[in-house]
Amino acid sequence: MVLLVATTLLLLPLLLLDPL
C-alpha cells in the first residue's frame, strides 16, 4: 500500500512534465 503511494507520487511529476 505504501509502495503504491510512493510510486504514484514519483510518477505523477513525470506524467505532468511529459509533453504528450
Structure commentary:
There is one protein chain. The chain has 1 helix and no strands. It is mainly alpha-helical and 20 residues long. The model has no long low-confidence stretch (mean pLDDT 89).
Number of helices: 1
- Structural class label: mainly alpha
Number of strands: 0
Helix content: over 70%
**Please, what is the average pLDDT?**
89
Q: How much strand content do the residues show?
A: under 5%
Shape: rod-shaped
Largest sheet: none
Series of H and E elements: H
The end-to-end span amounts to: 29 Å
| Poorly predicted spans | none
Q: Measured on Cα atoms, how large is the radius of gyration?
A: 9 Å
What keyword list fits this structure?
20 residues; single chain; 1 helix
At a glance:
The chain is an all-alpha fold.
What secondary-structure arrangement, pairings included, does this model have?
Blueprint: H1 2-17
